[in-house]
């Protein structure tokens, strides 16, 4: 049997009805600041529309979507056609796969330009991701607050997890079924942050 998590064990974050693992200083084979600068410069960042209650808005952050050929993904009501992996992203995928003990065929990159950029409360529970998806989320650049809220249990307080540069958070098990997550706007000014969420998209949908 292959060994789970060969690179030193991640921390387990207590999440009732879900599974969260955190590498506080993931071994990415490169300095997180250098990775941030390369990705900020090289990725094809776009302002993307979002469909909310039948209306189109611009998302409050920049996005870029990379995947294996033939993979497509509907995200926030919008169909995304992927770009081919850059050399940097391909290397990062290998590192993240080893650290997560999972396979990924795509990555959604988010660039939060400043403290007012954000990601609304959601779960990564699209059909194409299958049941109980493993989602590996790599943070680079400025620290931002990641918050999880249980869908039904009002007795559970939201979980606040500050995500700093070089941290790798793995969401798996029933996390997406039972919890939603967000990156709220904040009042304190800060610089840019990149978050890469590695996913396995099943095409055609399972
Ligand atoms: O920026 C983050 O930490 C979260 C990103 C996220 O939830 C997503 O891309 O689905
Ligand atoms: Fe998400």
Automatic annotation (TrEMBL):
Residues 103-202 form the Fe2OG dioxygenase domain. Its cofactor is Fe(2+). GO terms for biological process: DNA alkylation repair. InterPro entries: AlkB-like (IPR027450), AlkB-like_sf (IPR037151), ALKBH3 (IPR032854), Oxoglu/Fe-dep_dioxygenase_dom (IPR005123). Keywords: Dioxygenase, DNA damage, DNA repair, Iron, Magnesium, Metal-binding, Oxidoreductase. It comes from the Bacteria. The keyword Isomerase does not apply. Transmembrane segments: none annotated. Pfam families: 2OG-FeII_Oxy_2. Its EC number is 1.14.11.-. One of its GO terms (molecular function) is hydrolase activity. PANTHER family: ALPHA-KETOGLUTARATE-DEPENDENT DIOXYGENASE ALKB HOMOLOG 3. This is DNA-N1-methyladenine dioxygenase. It comes from Congregibacter litoralis KT71.
């Amino acid at each position: 049997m292959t060994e789970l998590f060969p690179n030193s064990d991640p921390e387990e974050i207590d999440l009732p009805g879900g599974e969260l693992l955190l590498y506080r200083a993931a071994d990415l084979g490169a300095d997180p600041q250098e990775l941030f600068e390369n990705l900020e410069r090289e990725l094809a960042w776009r302002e993307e529309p979002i469909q909310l209650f039948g209306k189109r808005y611009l998302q409050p952050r920049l996005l870029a979507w990379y995947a294996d050929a033939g993979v497509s993904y509907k995200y926030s009501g919008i169909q995304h056609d992927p770009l081919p992996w850059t050399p940097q992203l391909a290397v990062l995928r290998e590192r993240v796969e080893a650290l997560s003990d999972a396979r990924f065929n795509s990555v959604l990159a988010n660039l939060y330009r400043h403290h007012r950029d954000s990601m609304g409360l959601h779960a990564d529970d699209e059909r194409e991701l299958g049941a109980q998806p493993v989602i590996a989320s790599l943070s680079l650049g400025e620290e931002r607050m990641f918050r999880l809220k249980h869908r039904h249990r009002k007795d559970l307080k939201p979980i606040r997890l500050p995500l700093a540069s070089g941290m790798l958070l793995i969401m798996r098990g029933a996390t997406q079924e039972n919890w939603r997550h967000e990156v709220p706007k904040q009042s304190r000014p800060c610089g840019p942050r990149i978050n890469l969420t590695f996913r396995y998209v099943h095409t055609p949908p399972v």
